[in-house]
Amino acid sequence: MTSTARTPAGLLDYALGEPARPLVTFYDDATGERVELSVATFDNWVAKTANLIQGDLGAQPGDRLALLLPAHWQTAVWLQACFATGVVAVPGGDPAGADLVVSGPDTLDAARACSGERIALALRPLGGRFPQSPQGFADYAVEVPSQGDRFVAYAPVDPDAPALELPGGEELTGAEVTDRARASAAALGLTAGSRLLSGLPFDSWEGLAAGLLAPLAANGSVVLCRHLDRLPPEGLAKRRESERVTHMAE
Q1: How far apart are CA 187 and CA 150, in angstroms?
Q2: Dihedral sign, Cα of residue 82, residue 88, residue 91, residue 97
Q3: Taking a C-beta distance cutoff of 8 angstroms, is the pair 39, 18 a contact?
Q4: What are the tens digits of pLDDT across the range 152-171?
Q5: pLDDT tens, 171-196?
Q6: Residue 146, helix vs strand vs coil
Q7: CA dihedral 173, 179, 180, 183 (to 10 degrees)
Q8: Nearest-5° angle of CA 146, CA 149, CA 150?
Q9: Pairing of strands 88-91, 100-103
Q10: Does residue 48 contact residue 149 with C-beta atoms inside 8 Å?
């Protein structure tokens, strides 16, 4: 049975029919970190983050969120949380033109151009917090644990409303994101149970699709690798075998 969802949030809801299966397995080959998130665990992080966006940050559907983060499991969570709340995700967007900004540790100076709410992610193993929160930012790892484990939007997300602005300025509605995710899954040859290894950054549709959206649309999973260029060929071969990778996007 294929999902008939018209929004990316609906794709995740459909995936919850198999809550225990892996959805995102993340590697950072600069630190040796490995994190595996089942559908249920990923959904829990998304719910907490969406509650943070809608509640504590007071963001409204249509608000623009500049997402200054690398390809990372927490970036995938934020992307999906934006879709759940109706906030427009703008990967690599200009903070000065955004209503709120989410930044990793390497882009904090640029993120200060945002006049709205600012959230910082340390991107440390196991979702760890900053030793000291950056001035002018709320620390995601401090704020998110107390958020609710279930999320209900104040108003249903409109599939025909803007949901994602790609680098370069192309804007997609939720329905268009969902349709394009399905098309990317088909182009990559993904089917239910496929395991796609992606080393692509989240700075293009191809990277966003491979890193989350296409596997989600296909009822598959992603092995998301940051700093993959630091992994020698024999290490990549071992990872492909140990993670039962069926498809590659490098």
Answers
A1: 33
A2: negative
A3: yes
A4: 999 999 999 999 999 999 99
A5: 999 999 999 999 999 999 999 999 99
A6: coil
A7: 180
A8: 135
A9: unpaired
A10: yes
